[in-house]
Amino acid sequence: MNKTSRIAAFAITLLVPTALVAQAPALPSFEEVDKNRDGSLSQAEVRKYVDKRSRDIDFNRNGRLDPVEIADAVSSMNARQAANYIDLMDRDGDNELSYDEMAQDMPMLFGMADTDSDDLISLEEYVSILAHYGH
Questions:
Q1: Which has more pLDDT, 96 or 16?
Q2: Structural class in CATH, domain 3-132
Q3: CB neighbours of 12 closer than 8 A, spacing ≥ 6?
Q4: CA 20 to 30 Å from 66, out of 74, 95, 103, 113?
Q5: What is Dmax (Cα atoms) for the chain?
Q6: Cα torsion for 94, 96, 100, 106, to the nearest 10°?
Q7: Banded pLDDT at 121 (limits 50, 70, 90)
Q8: How far apart are CA 50 and CA 107, in angstroms?
Q9: Is 90 in contact with 101 (CB distance < 8 Å)?
Q10: What's the rounded Cα separation, in Å, for the pair 17 and 80?
């Protein structure tokens, strides 16, 4: 799996609600992310959801995610895998991810999902990208 695919898979995994992590991983419904109920997802809506998800898994509330927090929240990752992910994304070299570092590739990932290039993700695009990454 290349870096872009690993980042995309993990970014999608961040959408897993905290309460469901202990059970079978499930992604939020499209409607759960579409806060303005207009039938499409903007980059701002996705960013807001990812920021909320990051805060939810930031158990020590320091504004940064460490490997243990990520591994505890993402059932498909152990601490070593989480540390490897942090190595990919950590821009400042502190071995943790700030919320901004978590979202740094959001425009690229959003562009991958936005197949019609209208700067919005439709329900069909959402379903397609989830199916592509096995969710």
A1: 96
A2: mainly alpha
A3: 27, 129, 130, 133, 135
A4: 113
A5: 40
A6: 120
A7: very high
A8: 13
A9: yes
A10: 22
Structure tokens at 64: 């940064």
Distance CA 92, CA 40 (A): 34
DSSP-assigned letters across all residues of 92-132 = SSSSSEEHHHHHTTHHHHHHHH-TT-SSSEEHHHHHHHHHH
Question: pLDDT class for 42, splitting at 50, 70, 90?
Answer: very high
Q: Which residue has the tokens 């540390």?
A: 83
Domain extents in the chain: 3-132
Contact in structure between 26 and 17 (CB atoms under 8 Å): yes
Residues in the chain: 135
Structure tokens at 116: 């019609």
- Check: CB of residue 103 under 8 Å from CB of residue 51: yes
What is the DSSP code (8-state) at residue 33? H
Taking residue 23's Cβ as centre, other Cβ atoms within 10 Å add up to 10
CA-wise closest residue to 42 among 99, 119, 125, 130: 119
